[in-house]
Batch of 3 targets.
Target 1
Amino acid sequence: MVAAGIVMHADTALVQRAQANDRAAFNEIVLRYKNKVYNYIFRMVHNAVDAEDLTQETFVRAYMSIRSFQSRASLNTWLFRIATNQCIDYSRKNKRIQANTTSLYEDVNEEGEEKQRDLPDLSFDPQRMLLNKELGRRLEDALSSLPEKLRTVVLLYDIEGLSYDEITAILNCPLGTVKSRLFNARSSLRDKLSPYLQA
Amino acid sequence: MSNFNQNEDRACQSIEALLPQYIENLLAARTMLEVESHLTRCRTCSQQCRQLEATVNLLQSMDRLETSDDFMAKLHAKLDTVVPETGLHLSFFASLREMVYRLQQARTVPILSASMTMAGVIAFAILYHPMPLRTVPVPAAAKIGVEQPLQRNVALAAVNPFDDPAAANLEAHSAIQDSNLATISNE
């Protein structure tokens, strides 16, 4: 908690300098947050090139509107809000393409209904490393198959380590909604990964 | 389904709802014990809990990706083509809210309000002057009604200063009072 306070204080100083047109201060902000934002966006869009473009666009927008940044929210929250809006815009633009894209985890039968692939039984695999790698891949697939709203919450909370309050500020929705989305997202992931988790 | 099974199902549902807080140690001590007690009895819930914990651990230990090496160079090229907004587009109320928030953060509100009150009192003391009494215009008819007897009395007093009807009345009245007093004292 103390560390978070120190980071926030350092962020505030950086923001004040950046608001006074100090490009070096803005550069420092980018270096501090670029990987966090990129990780989040990549797992939202599942495309490395697009994720990098959207990350850049996030920082360009932040640079343009840094003077209207209000110290009420943390810099972290503000950047993730911009990133989330970028992902929503991207998703709207690519909705048709996304609808035609199937997850590796899921398949489509002749009637057009989605069905889960039969997962190989890895319980007797002696190579634990391979299993972990496979598990990581399955987790990425399971994440990408989650509805966008659930995926956003689980990425922000479990992967980026944001608090409930920060997520409610980013998504502009009530705390109860955030909690229930997190519960549903985790349950869905657990169900999809259960064959591997047992192994 | 027997009552026992129904109760167990209900218990499992409530426990499942508590598992996210349980794995993060966010439950009250008593609820924590209740969940633990249920998990030792129920294999299904226990398995669900282990899997949920494993899922969260997996999520938290996912690979951290990094941007490409030329990320900063590309970004700076983009930043060179844009101009930061001035911030003047903020609405008046947004600016006001921001100012109040900053003041609250700085905890200067009591000092500021006391100073403003003092300034207000001083300004009032300096600037306040009692309003002069306004003369109410008297209607011409009423003016004549008041002025005519007055002028008559002044004229009479000028002719014979001792022939003042008001003074004569007053004299007669005091003579009556003196005779009454004398009568009372004699009795």
Target 2
Amino acid sequence: MATTALTPAAAGYRSGLYEWVTTTDHKKIGILYITNSFIFFFLAGLLALGVRAELAQPGLQFVHDENTYNQLFTMHGTAMIFLFIIPMLAGFGNYVVPLQIGAPDMAFPRINALSFWLLPLGGILMFSGFLTGGAAAAGWTSYSPLAQDRPLGMQGAGEDLWIVGLLLIGTASILGAINFLVTIFKMRAPGMTMFRMPILVWTILVTSVLVLMATPVFTSALIMLFIDRNYGGHFFDPATGGNAILWQNVFWFYSHPAVYVMVLPAMGIVSEVLPVFSRKPLFGYKAFVFATAAIGALGFSVWAHHMFTTGSVFLPFFSLMTFLIAVPTGVKFFNWIATMWRGQLTFSTPLLFALGFLTMFLIGGINGAFSASVPVDFALHDTYWVVAHLHYVLFGGSVFGVFAGFYYWFPKMTGRMLSEGLGKAQFVLMMIGFNLTFFPMHILGLSGMPRRIADYASTAGWNDLNLAASIGGFLIAASMLPFLANVFVSLRGGRIAGDDPWEANTLEWATSSPPPPYNFDHLPEIRSERPLFDLRHRRTLPAAVLPDPGPAPMPTVSATPAPRSRTRRTKP
Amino acid sequence: MTSDSRALAATREHSPVAGMAHDTRGGISNPILGMILFITSEVMFFAGLFAAYFNVRANAAHWPPTQPEGLAEHFNLHAEPFFALGLTIILIISSATCQLGVSAIRRNDRTGFVRAISITLILGIVFLIGQVYDYMTLGFGLGDGVFGTTFYTLTGFHGAHVFGGVIMLSVILYRGMAGQFSARHHDAVEATSIYWHFVDVVWIGLFSTLYIL
Amino acid sequence: MSSYRRTRPSTGAIVVGAVLLVLLALIAFAAVRGTNLGKAANDIMGSMFPPAAVTEQGRQIRGLYDVVFLIAAVIFLLVEGLIIWSVVRYRRKPGDNVLPAQTHGNNVAEITWTLIPTIIVAFLFYISWQTLNSVDAVSTKPDIHVRAVAGQFQWSFVYLGDDGQTEQYTQFVPIGNDGGLVLPVGRNVQLSLESPDVIHAFYVPQFLFKRDVVPGQVNKFDFTIDQNDAGQTFRGQCAELCGIGHRAMVFEVHAMSQQDYDAWLKQKIESAKPTARPSGSGVPPAASLNLVAQGIQFKSQTLEAPANKPFEIKFDNQDAGITHDVAIQDPKGTLVVNGDDVKGPGQATYSIQPLQPGDYKFICTFHSNMTGVLTVK
């Protein structure tokens, strides 16, 4: 016990700014990812508050003109997707994956640092559009020909900055994916076979394949749009011989798999949290892995379900594929429920957020069946119903998953516990605010309110629901206050976490909190997907080589790193 | 912790954590795997551009297009594919010499390696010069209809990749002359050669699509 | 590690209780205010469905929606119920020190919950496909053929003849009693959607239908408005972000009986005739006016023309890739001239029949904010 009482073993975490800027340690880069993502989360959240403030009542009263309004929702969507959810989950992957597979670092630490630093650069470029007379305003989908450099289109630098920013972020994603894949394929500890990897690692693996195959297509799309706008190209503008639908095809070929890039790792996080707080293994590990792979594979054949109303899509095929995705997703749901079934649930904050994921993502998932049904999609497409659906998937799913992961791994990252009280306050506020914001949008959409309108007729009957949604939006913002307070208070004076505060299953809890550079001094034997559980319950090492663990069994591997592992190697 | 030291020592011996940043347990090495994955993403990048090309071509009434006025004859690349064919042959030969260089360093033949990679590098530069010459004499530009846009985007991005390959070849040539490679240690050479073959294959695809199909 | 103190197992129950309490309080508040709870429940249920469909195709989509909704609701209640049951039933209680059974899986259960969803989605796909084939069918001989043109940021509707080519009458004003898309009930209407600029979408909530208006291609769809909806007006709106004027791209559909529609169209064609025809009378124009469109603006906002004499407008559209035209509204707001579309850059000369003295308004029918005053004296 005494070993774990030692406060943070890694002195490196205390060193200055220079260390953070030049680090190639996957853990620090992971923390940089997470911090950077939260900064853009708050920025994009402010933009969303602008949107909700404008829509709270009919009339143009908050932003005064549609151009500003269009910039608000365009940058909100873009930043939330590309600068918050995707890099946030990549950040968790960065921090956790090498630890969970018992590796000392990522395969390419310097490329890892590069793929992080491209993100703030891309983000700043994109947001600098606001300083150049208007950021991009064609929606995060940036449909051409609206996105072309033409009168009543996107004249000015904002759209070009958006393109260049996304090119950088896309490059970061691709490099990150290569890094994850090589790390997972090549750097697993002895005994860590593919089917003993934690589910989070599996989801990151599948996600990385999606990123690797889909993002370059988006890159090519962005480059073509850039050529159209700046060098007189003719790809996407029918007025000059191009094809407007072509943009949608290349865009969604990436952006639909991107939905799984945003949801699969969140599912992975939930699959880490649920077993730990149920005191049971994940039900149907292999089924879960196959379901993840199936979602990834099917994810490449459903992009055109965003284009059902364009009149140039082979509808039955994409409809069928979209429906089929419900099957592996359903399998996962039942596996999660079976994991909790007859377990012993401890309602710590990570579990609460994981349950938030289950209950809310379920709504977003079931909604997907409506959109998959082409005729029903004819009615719902491009209305607020779709806004509700995508937020139930990306907020109810990904964001709840992100917070589950944050509360779960914060003790590992910092060595200190977050406050349970503040965490629960945040959860309750967020849950109420989220549903108050996005549930009414289903009804608005069904009654015919289109997306992306700055104003609506006061006679349309949409006033009350819009007001409710706006109040909910500000409640979500309010839920960030206990969260921030929690983080800052805990960083300064939170309870010391110890190596394994949750009695968890996976390898990251076998080292100190925070882990030393290069992560492990010793690894426990890996005989299943739960090496720590095996160790705790004395299933792995024969008793002869273990000292008597005493009444409270704990990992025999010490959290105190051996001196040599502290020495920083200059050339990894 | 004395009784378990034997077990832990055994673990440490095979463990990647004992100061080993790169795990080289059998199979493909990390940089080579990384390069192959990178090339996968590059394949998808060119797939996006090719998809755009075929989409535009499928939607066109005539191919090569008859618009804009006066450029139709320049668009008819099928009539005179010989210059491009020459460039294709140059690239194919360079792929072969590149592979000769790889075999040489696998045999620890540094002189042969330097010779083969030098020829590859020169052929790559000749290709680039040839492409610039081709651009100057084609008679149409990037803005001249969908044909000009797709042609220059596809060949231009390929050219940029050749340029990247030339830089990589220069680096391994420099390092080879400095004696940094051996039969056991030449991941950079293997990675560069895979990349160079990929660039070659893309060009063969481009040549078939733009000049023959 | 045993030093870690677990939160009290009742916390989950407290949260659930709090949520229930809030719900109860809301219901009680509504009851105290005298809200009819039964009606409110009905309204809430009703808000989960699209509006009542007014077309044959819309009713089929609504039927499909109801089936999908029913299945979705059952699945939702089942799964959400299982989650809540697990949370309530299997919370860790004091004294739960023995590990629960470490179940790693169950092949029978897992195959079951793979197969059953597969069957459900296969069924959903099948009925969707059936409905799709029906609502997406496009007739080669529609009763009524209208071309809807969506430009930034205005709708116009061109009534086509039986051949589907000849333009009989163009409705430029998308809303109001004298404007809008006027259609007969009970007839098979085909809309051809065309855009001169960016992507728009034709959307009428009561049709339960929308279709994108994509530049460079013509999208067609058929629908039949129900017989008993004659005299109704349905509000429609552009549903695809098309720029700063997106929210203002509204239109109305007026459903009429067959007789009313025939009379309306006949009258419209008659009134448009004298001005729609180009001047071929041989009388030389008394004046020639120059009008330039640039940057979605007319360069001159005022024009002057002689009264009661034919004149011509030389129109120069300098906006590359953008279509403009010139139309003239008389002081009462009736469209008296509608010039041909000119895709920029391009020129056209419009021959205008003699006009009565007065202040006319000239507009670009694609861009409702492009206007000017034509003084005829």
Target 3
Amino acid sequence: MKHLRRSLWAFHLNTGSCNGCDIEAIAAVTPRYDAERFGVRIVPTPRHADVLLLTGPVTRDMEQRMKLVYEQMPDPKVVMVIGNCGATGGVFRGSYNLAGPADRHIPVAVYVPGCPPRPEAILDGVMKAIEKLEEAKA
Amino acid sequence: MKPQALASSLKKSLGNKATAVRVERLVDGAKTSNPVFRIWLSVKPAALPEAVGQLARISPDPHFSVISGCDLGKAIELIYHFTAGYGTRLGESSVSMRVALPKRSPEVPTITGIIPGALISEREVQEMLGVKVIGIPDQRRLFLGKDFPKGVYPWRKDASGPGSLAGSQRKGGPDG
Amino acid sequence: MASEGVSYEFSVGPVHPALKEPLRLDLTLEGEKVTAVDFELSQVHRGIEWLATGRNPVQILYLAERVCGICSICHMLAFSRAVEAAAGIEVPPRAQYIRTVVAELERIHSHLLWAGVAAHELGFDSVMHYTWRARENVLDTVEYLTGNRISKAMVTIGGVRRDFGDKQLARIGECIGFYRKCFGKLEGILLRDRIIRSRTRDVGVLTRKDALALCAVGPTARASGVMKDVRHDEPYAAYQDLDIKPVMPEDVLGETRGDVYDRIAVRVHEIRQSADIIGACVKGMPPGKIRHEDKSAKILASLLPVKGEGIGRHEAPRGEVFHYIRMAGQEAPSSWKIKAPTYSNLLSWVPMLKGAQVADIPIIAASIDPCMSCTNRAVAAGGKDVLGNDALRRLSVEKTRELRRSGG
């Protein structure tokens, strides 16, 4: 990526995670990692978001909510799964109360593996998400 | 209050309503090794509120932690986990009251009249084991969602367990 | 703003797991005040206790660790203690000290995280950035010691997985030196700011009577004058060698009101207490083995025939963590019950929120430290008025600004 052409507005949705990924994602916007210098902003509604940041293994109760949030996002949009749970179920794989992984229900463009991934890895994922968005626009 | 004395008082106040009263002594610590005490007793379901009441009388404001439950086949065993004697260094003992419920009609009276804080746990054992808590002020499910199938009890090991809902790990195949 | 009898659904989440999150708080309002409180917890139920019935105790350690990402070592520790109790395994003294150090490092990270979240709910984002930046020091230290910032994986059945050499001990010394130095600043920012005090004094009160009846734990209970602290009441690990006096508002503020301010005070002072505990552990670290048995396969082999029950408790940053395990002579346990601290503190929301103003909902909800409060949505029961995530927080921020304008 040569330069960032656009800023990225992200909506964060926890689909039942242990919070590990969520706190590292939030750490990514605090001064040390400072995602905001890349134009990344966490927004309060999916209607303003370009990227959906998903954490968690998608519990039964969160499946519908996740789909609804995805539908509410305007195009072009990308989904980024943070952590192992959203990708494979993680340690919770096999549970009776899970509807995941996330890509069973919505298209996922970027996976940031880890349990939890470091803020640097999350930022790296965000950069890839921006690339994907640019592709989607083109 | 010393754990032995606490156990004796409980046994005395409940008579034959409390059985298998024992004080387990464990050792914990690093350089100093002070004992940790766990009092275990069994009570009949109908006598549970009385047992809790006696505990509260002997050691005021007992702390209620949680109810654990186990499907033992023909019976469901609930263990009500309390601690008594907070606030004094090395002064706390755990008191666990075991209640065996017949699986055909697993009913137990509520203790929220004495320990309002037990409500969360009572709601949980209802939905997880299919236990009926008589007099519970709130019948609703708590941790299982509205769409979770009725008649499936996650902690049960019989046909009403959650096995059929489990994912690929159990089935040994890919998700789907 | 709110009409009479309008019912608001308010989402506070993610919150402490095993507590299942994101949580939904349903609040009924009359005018500007809360009259009824209810909650829905099914969004984060992952069936952890059931998953364990198909795994062995060593595997379960890593499942336990992910009950909560914020107090991960707490669940590993309480679980281990329960298994060790059931199996009669003695943990070597050095391992007990290492466990204690890691647990207290986790307390520092957790309380700083909470302070940032609480500040955010009040509209003090700069304080959030400051506390989370300050938190990076303990995370770096934890990474140096264990290889990871968040999931430390330090506890194993019968001991700990990594030793502390001289370099590690020196690094720990630097870390607590940092926090001892910045404690004064933290105290000033969080406890002596007149606006924070205005927003939190006599707000969200939990009386001592209610705290006892509802079996509240941790800083939530201590702030209401209930001196419950597992490290003091039933000491374990290195806590048995130390004289831990639970932090109470009476001692650090001179009085107890059981409000949000008291909860902040207890947590802030516990950061300093943790630094002291860690210092004492480093100083008095006993030599010797760090595990009762080195090889996992041997640990598992020794656990296989065990038939028995065990209880393991730990004072996590939020309060008592309780694990019960029942082993029946098989690879997997036959029963496992986890109780997270927020499980015990949930019902306290009811008396705390009753009579509260809408603008105070975020900070009151956050004050029990339900692992992490980030307001999701508030929807009026009729579905007409949707208060976005930001909007409820904006009410709180606006109230802070009002106070500043009017001179506090």
